[in-house]
Amino acid sequence: MERLPKIALPVVIGLVVLIILIAKSAVTIGPGEGGVIFKRFGDGIDTSQTYGEGFHIVAPWNDMIIKKVRQQSISDKMNVLSVNGLEVNVNGTVWYEPEYSKLGLLIKTKGENYVQELLAPAVNAAARSVVGRYTPEQLYSSKRDVIEQEILDEVTKLLDQQYVNVKRVLVEDVQLPATIKQAIERKLKQEQESLEYEFRLVTAQKEAEKQRIEAQGKADANKILSASLTDKILQDKGIEATNKLAESPNSKVVVIGSGDSGMPIILGNQ
């Protein structure tokens, strides 16, 4: 077997090294992700550019740091105090996304673990501030949507110029101590029953008023009718009815004289 030429070994070694360098330099950024370059022998994170989805070549002595840049969410359970000092457990979810063009600045100033080191503390602080303005009853019943908006406003202020945008805050559950919860539920039930009673009472009063008005209307109508029925009108009506009876083919009428009221007297008919 003939020996390989002396140049062959360096060529093979060079090819191996080249393949390793290409493999190390090739970076693929997935859907919904962004990347920033960390220059090992430069100034660290390159904040001038965020790399989008797809295939990229990076110098082998540099690193590509890849992070999700689409909308994401974190959920947390927090123990906070209400306005009267009662401990309340709040379960919430926050939707957020980093500013795509500022991803380098976000990582450089806040670190790669910015969710735990920046976002989560801000949400917790906002929740404590907002929940501390309300009573347990308000937290348990009708103030949920207002609380969500106030927490969102607080978080937005805390994260201003921090390169993270919070899109929405959802308060999923508010857990109170059992005794407080039962007391609130009893009070709400009593209020509901009171409202139902008042509704029935108002309805009955309206129905009674309606009947009174209808009865008064009928009485007024009868009074007007009675006042309008003079003897002359009654006599004319009687004559009109007698004429119609006389014109009927099924009747035979004999009229003799008149009654005390001046009306004709009908003696017989068939």
From TrEMBL:
Key word Transmembrane present: yes
Membrane topology: Single-pass membrane protein
Keyword annotations: Membrane, Transmembrane, Transmembrane helix
Transmembrane region(s): 7-27
Domain called Band: residue spans: 24-188
A Pfam family reported for this protein in Swiss-Prot or TrEMBL: Band_7
Subcellular location: Membrane
Record-linked InterPro entries: Band_7, Band_7/SPFH_dom_sf, Prohibitin
Name listed for the protein in its UniProt record: Prohibitin family protein
Organism field: Winogradskyella marincola
